[in-house]
Amino acid sequence: MRILEEKGHLTHRHDGPRYVYSPVVPRAAARQSALRSVVKTFFDGSATQAVAALLDMSESRLSRDEADQLARLIEKAKREGK
Known about the structure:
The protein is an alpha+beta fold. It has 4 helices and 2 strands, in the order αββααα. It has a two-stranded antiparallel ribbon.
């Protein structure tokens, strides 16, 4: 934990006799960074291949609401040129 704190990934506060550690980077930013790294490393930077792999490995089918939400996100990305 000390090493992670020295590298700037964690901070701590005292809570009585113990230390309580907290991440420095917000969860959403850490998630986005990790996912970007996974897509770059394992899918040659292709979001399409990453999404296809996620859909293939899903143990259950997408609900209609989930499929509609994905369709809306894809349409938004098209409009914004992403």
